Amino acid sequence: MNPVLGELVERAGGLVTRVAAVQVVPEWTLWQACRSGALVRVMPEVFVAAHLLDGRRGTRPDAPVLSRLDPELARRAACAWVEGRGALSHLSALDVWGLRRQNPGELLHLSAPARAGLRSRPGVTVHRRQGLILEPPQVVVRKGQPVTRLEQTLVDSWPILPSAERRAPVLRAVNDRLTTPERLAVALGNAPKLHDRATFRTLLTRLAEGCRSPLEIWGHERVFTGPGMPAFRRQARVRVGPRTMYLDLFAERERVNIELDGATTHGDPRQREIDLRRDALLATVGILVVRFAHRRLVHETDDVRRETLAILTNRRASATA
What pLDDT does residue 57 have? Predict the structure, then answer.
C-alpha cells in the first residue's frame, strides 16, 4: 500500500473513507490498494485494512463483508457511510450504551429520518422514522458515535432480543442509574404496537415498586405479596452509623429485612463474610435479617412463604409482649 495512505489508515484505526483518502493521495492510489488486497470496501466509499477481516471464525463465506469485522469497527464504518444522516440504534446502540455486547456477524442497526435517502444494505438494517431529529435529546453522541437516546434504544431492542434476554439490559440500565422506570414508561407509551409490550410494562411496574433483579421480581410475584404479607419497602435505604445500606425487602413495623441471595454472588465465601458483617450491623439497630437462597425461592416457594409469615407473626407478638 502507498505509505501515505497506509499511515492515514493506521491513524484512523484501520478505516478510511474515499473523501479522506483523496485529500492526501490520488484516487487511483486508493483503488490500487483495493486491487492489491490491502484495503477492502465494506460500505459505499468506506474501506478497511484487509487484515482486520481475519479471525472471524464461524462467519459464512457468503456473509456481508461488514459482518466479518469486529462489531466496534463495523459500527464505525456504518457511521462513516451515513455521514451524519443517521444514528446507531437498536442492538447496535445497546452495545455503545454498554448494556449488551453485539455479537460478531449480527446485523448493524441505524435509524434515520424518513427523508434521509438511506436504505438497508447487506449487514446493515436502516430504520426510517418520521419525525426523527438527529440532535439531542433524540440522538446523542456516546464514545464518539451518534446513538439513539437510551430509553428509545431499550424500547427498540426489546422485540429483537430473544425473550430470555430482554429484561437484562433494562434492569442494568435502571440499576446503573442511566435511566428510570418513569422515563422508560414514557418511551414505551410512544410504541403502542411493540411486540410483547405487556411484559415490558409489567417489568417497569416491578422496577418502579423497587425490584432490582429477576430474583426480586420472582419473589414479588410469587412469594412476598398476598394475604398476611406486609407492604414491604423494596430497596429501603437504612443508615447505621457512617454506613448506608439498601435492603431488598423491609417490613418496617416488624423490623425484618428479607434478603434474596442470588445463585452466583452469594456463593462466594468473601461475599458471605460481607453479608454476615452487614447482618450483624443491622442487628445493632434491631433489624432481623432473614436470607433466602435462590434455590429455595424457586423450588420451595410455599415453604419460604410459610416461614416468612411465621417470622413476621413472631416479631409482632414479641413487640407487644
Answer: 47
| Cβ 151 vs Cβ 187: under 8 Å | yes
**DSSP strand E in 2-144: where?**
15-17, 39-43, 46-49, 87-88, 108-113, 124-129, 139-142
Per the DSSP assignment, residues forming a β-bridge with 124 are 108, 121
pTM: 0.87
Q: What is the pLDDT of residues 192-238, one digit of tens each?
A: 999 999 999 999 999 999 999 999 999 999 999 999 899 999 999 99
- Class of CATH domain 214-320: alpha beta
CA 288-309-294 angle, 5° bins: 70
Grid cell digits, residue 61: 463465506
Residue 85, classed as helix, strand or coil, is: coil
The helix or strand, by DSSP H or E, that contains position 5, with its residue range, turns out to be helix 3-11
| Contact present, 85 and 110 (Cβ < 8 Å) | no
Total residues belonging to the chain: 321
Distance CA 53, CA 144 (A): 23
Joined together, the cell numbers standing for residue 63 give 456473509
CATH number given to 3-53: 1.10.10
Domain parsing of the chain, residue ranges: 3-53, 62-148, 155-208, 214-320
Q: What is the mean pLDDT of residues 2-26?
A: 95
- Number of helical H runs and strand E runs in the chain: 13, 12
Equal CATH topology for 3-53 and 214-320: no
Query: Which cell numbers in the block locate residue 251?
Result: 417490613
pLDDT recorded at residue 141: 97
Say how many C-beta atoms besides its own lie within 10 A of residue 290's C-beta: 16
